[in-house]
Amino acid sequence: MDVLSDAVVAVRTGRPHSIRHELYTPWGMQFPSGEGAGFHIVLRGSCWLIPVEGPPIALNAGDVALVRGDGTHGLADELSSPLTEVGLSTDAAPYREVRHEGTGPSTVILCGAYLLDHTRTHPVLSELPPVVHLPAHLEQHPSLRSAVEMLGDELDRPQLGMGAIVPALLDTLLLYILRSWFERRSQDESVAGWAAALSDPAIGSALSAIHQEPTHPWTVEELGARAGLSRAAFARRFTTLVGQPPLAYLTWWRMTTGARLLRESDAPLRVVARQTGYGSEIAFAAAFKRQYGVSPGRYRRHSSTEAESA
């Protein structure tokens, strides 16, 4: 798997949920803050996105917006329209429709949420701005546009298999949104950080090696050779772009992988240790406790209790 895919898999919890809103002017919706990230796709008409900070953003048909879940935001037909708080169902159904009362011109918007574990957010996602707006009129990102069209067609003409297709398309949509944003960022030569790291051939090859083989006993020299750089030059460049030294990132990723295995499987601790590059349960447990502050067993029990109460 590549770094971006791994980053999403590491923090995703559960399936995405969505609601197709058919609205008639005047209307306004207020979305509360929550765990994860919200998304809005204008399928028909236009509206305003009103973030908690910054100026309002005009959204037109085909536009896609991804909003971080750490702040409230609104959608409205006009900036003067009052906002009514709405929630997003987190029941088993990944999709439902709501038709709002009204007689004015209509707007159709797909609103939803991706549930994310913010306790272990991959740094590749920490650079996202409060709102990622990808306008349709720029005619960029054809793969994203195709995903939006497929999703809109599936919702307009429900057929057998929709319950599986819609969540799969929503997962695909998230990756296309993130890919499109990082591609746009990487075109700016003044931008550093993960956008530059993912587009840098040398650092990108080292990151790919770590993610493809996290159990390998990597050294800085070996990763530098993969990148085609000397040990010192590679270490400096990696630390500047990624934000931490190569072996520190390797340990961080191993522990993140281990935490996901503890949450999502009942594999014995020795198996989890082996799958994260540690030769013994004791070595893995010690490294895990340094990162998380609790033992692997306690972490697994706590995660299981949270899942049962959700």
Q: Would you kindly provide a written description of the structure presented here, covering whatever features stand out?
A:
- With 310 residues, the protein is of the alpha+beta class.
- The protein has two domains: 3-186, Regulatory protein AraC (Jelly Rolls); 200-310, Orthogonal Bundle (Arc Repressor Mutant, subunit A).
- 46% of the residues lie in helices and 19% in strands.
- The chain has twelve helices and eleven strands.
- The chain has helices at residues 3-11, 123-126, 142-156, 162-186, 194-199, 201-212, 220-227, 231-242, 246-264, 269-275, 281-292, 296-309, and strands spanning 17-24, 28-31, 37-44, 46-51, 57-60, 64-68, 73-76, 84-85, 95-99, 106-114, 131-134.
- The longest helix is centred in the middle third of the chain and has 25 residues, at 162-186.
Keywords:
single chain; 310 residues; alpha+beta; Jelly Rolls; Arc Repressor Mutant, subunit A; 2 domains; 6-stranded mixed sheet; 5-stranded mixed sheet; 11 strands; 46% helix
How do you describe this structure in short?
The chain is built from twelve helices and eleven strands. It has helices at residues 3-11, 123-126, 142-156, 162-186, 194-199, 201-212, 220-227, 231-242, 246-264, 269-275, 281-292, 296-309, and strands at 17-24, 28-31, 37-44, 46-51, 57-60, 64-68, 73-76, 84-85, 95-99, 106-114, 131-134.
Explain the layout of strands and helices.
Layout: H1 3-11, E1 17-24, E2 28-31, E3 37-44, E4 46-51, E5 57-60, E6 64-68, E7 73-76, E8 84-85, E9 95-99, E10 106-114, H2 123-126, E11 131-134, H3 142-156, H4 162-186, H5 194-199, H6 201-212, H7 220-227, H8 231-242, H9 246-264, H10 269-275, H11 281-292, H12 296-309
Parallel strand pairs: 1-9, 2-8
Antiparallel strand pairs: 1-10, 2-7, 3-6, 3-10, 4-5, 4-7, 6-11
Helix pairs in contact: 3-4, 6-7, 7-8, 10-11
